[in-house]
Write the structure tokens for this entry.
Amino acid sequence: MRWFWIDRFIEFVRDTRARTIKNVTFGEEPLDNYLQSCPHYPHSLMIEGMAQTGGLLVSEPEGFTRKTVLAKVSKATFHKIVVPGDCIELHAVVQAKHQTGAVIDGTITCAGEPVAEMELWFAFLDESFGAEALFPPEDLMRTLRILRLFDVAVDNQGNRISPPKHMLEAELQSAQALRQAAPRTLWFCHPKPRESEPGSNSTFFEKA
């Protein structure tokens, strides 16, 4: 099971704001045995979804090379529960950002009604915490494609944001290594961004 609690980006403005959506289904594992008489989406996972939305927002300008971790939940207020069949929208706005961390204001709504407000603090870890990335760049790139971040990502002037070059190279190297190791009869699905739309989710199939 992927430990991601957002489904798709619907807005992303560099270092400013981001919006994501999360569809809640009865088939999700976190709802199993969680208040069986009233199954609903845990508040902790809404916080985690906001942390993922805000964390990607504040780490994108550096090409996702900074180790960004959730340091503190300074405020979290919930107004209603979210049940299977609901779709929640998470809106993160950068409140402050400096060399060692960032703060975002987060709001969550469902069908236009308020669900939660929160304030999250992030820390940027330096090399004393190790030089290795928290996530392999090729894995993170695949995840960002699934979340369709680069389909909507723009800078403050409205220009499209392209995936970082080092992540595209890592993704290609990973695909080539898998291709060499796999049986020759397999088909591979590769991401193939259109030149006019960097980072789009277009794919092509190629026989090994």
Summary: The chain has a mean pLDDT of 88. The helical segments are 43-59, 137-146, 149-152, 165-181.
